[in-house]
Amino acid sequence: MKDHTVVVPDLRGTGRSSKPADGYDKKTQAKDIRAVVTSLGYDKTSVVAHDIGNMVAYAYAAIYPDKLSGWLFGHTDPRD
Q: Where along the chain do its domains lie?
């Protein structure tokens, strides 16, 4: 039974994503994630973030609090 969809986008400038000259601030990257979510036909979503993605997920939560059904941050210890 399928009851979840997992989407793992590359953040702007990493992996197979585009590498524009600007837009690397966390708010813009959060808007990029929102664009991916809505382009796939979703409105509310749970966000799971790890490492540098935590900052983008935090910006996403700050900008779109009504669009989150849950969130989980992992590996947030700055000593690592």
A: 1-80
